[in-house]
């Protein structure tokens, strides 16, 4: 799986299950508060995407113990992606 495909799938899962922003039926003050939360949520999404990419690199470099599942492996399982199958892009995006 290409890194771009992974990122698209991860972003879709995040929006579906983990993002908390919803502007429907909200007044102005509630929207302002939720925009602040959305910024935190966006930071969390970026953080977890980087955690997953680092985890996949580690798995590919040194392997993984399947005795216990950490959060990164649990998220990969939820995405239906094997971290060993992730193809990383280089700095040029290839």
Question: What does this protein look like?
Answer:
This protein is elongated. It contains three helices and no strands. The chain has one domain (3-80). It is 64% helix and 0% strand. The protein is mainly α and 94 residues long. The two termini are 13 Å apart. The chain has helices at residues 3-18, 28-62, 71-79.
Q: What is the secondary structure topology, with strand pairs?
A:
Layout: H1 3-18, H2 28-62, H3 71-79
Helix pairs in contact: 2-3
What tags apply to this protein structure?
single chain, mainly alpha
Short synopsis of the structure:
With 94 residues, the protein is an all-alpha fold.
Total of helices: 3
Helix content: 55-70%
Listing every helix as H and every strand as E from the N terminus to the C terminus, the arrangement reads HHH
Total domain units: 1
The mean pLDDT is 78
Please compute the radius of gyration using only Cα atoms.
Answer: 16 Å
**Unreliable sequence segments:** none
Largest sheet: none
Number of strands: 0
Q: Structural class of the secondary elements?
A: mainly alpha
Give the CA-based shape. elongated
Distance N terminus to C terminus? 13 Å
Strand content: under 5%
């Amino acid at each position: 799986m290409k890194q771009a495909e992974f990122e698209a799938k991860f972003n879709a899962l995040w929006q579906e299950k983990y993002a908390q922003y919803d502007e429907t039926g909200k007044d102005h003050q509630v929207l302002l508060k939720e925009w602040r939360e959305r910024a935190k949520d966006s930071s969390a999404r970026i953080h977890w995407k980087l955690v997953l990419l680092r985890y996949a690199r580690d798995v590919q470099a040194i392997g993984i113990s399947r005795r216990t599942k950490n959060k990164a492996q649990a998220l990969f399982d939820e995405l239906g992606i094997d971290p060993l199958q992730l193809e990383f892009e280089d700095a040029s995006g290839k």
